[in-house]
Amino acid sequence: MACVETSDYRVGEVLLNRVMQEQLNEVSSVPVVVSTETQEVESDQEQKIVSQLAMMIRTIGDAVKKDGKLDDAIDGMVGQMTSKTSYWKLVEKVFEDSQITWERIAVLFYVAGRIAVKVVIANLPQLVQDILKWTLEYFRNKLLDWIQKHGGWMNSFAELARVQVEKMSSMSAWSSGLILVFLGGVILGSVITWKLSSRT
């Protein structure tokens, strides 16, 4: 079990770092490095999981961003985000009714990236490291056990793909071609992941 915990935590840490770094790279003309001490993935399988999950989180995050409510909540708290306690208050909004789902974990990772962007825009880049540290602590204390009980990151793909298809299908009719392309990608990714996991 310790090996699975280490792998699930490592994938979560690398994934969070990647999601935050991608968002910072989009808006910051001055490079802000999320972390120089992040663990590295230990296998091709973990690398593929991180890559596929990062892509899924990006898609889910784009839908959340369009909603605007979360961005408004983040804007209102950026100036107050000086401690783990104040940060966790914002994070708890993602899990308001205490229900953990794969989608909400994806949203949390996206939110951490958005908060990192907001603090950089507010000229507080020193908080980026704290946001990473506080999010990882929340992840380990509140979410890692749930992830393990639900089969690890590998089992997140089906649920996150379903969420993305639902969000995409609510778009206009012209997007049906995009949905088919996306589903093809998800199926291909699932087959690759399945083949890699069956080798070990």
UniProtKB/TrEMBL annotation:
PROSITE patterns: BCL2_FAMILY. GO terms for cellular component: mitochondrial outer membrane. The keyword Transmembrane applies. One of its GO terms (molecular function) is BH domain binding. One of its GO terms (biological process) is regulation of apoptotic process. Residues 57-153 form the Bcl-2 Bcl-2 homology region 1-3 domain. The chain crosses the membrane at residues 173-194. Keywords: Apoptosis, Membrane, Transmembrane, Transmembrane helix. The keyword Ligase does not apply. Pfam families: Bcl-2 (PF00452). Signal peptide: none annotated. Belongs to the Bcl-2 family. This is Bcl-2 Bcl-2 homology region 1-3 domain-containing protein. It comes from Hucho hucho (huchen).
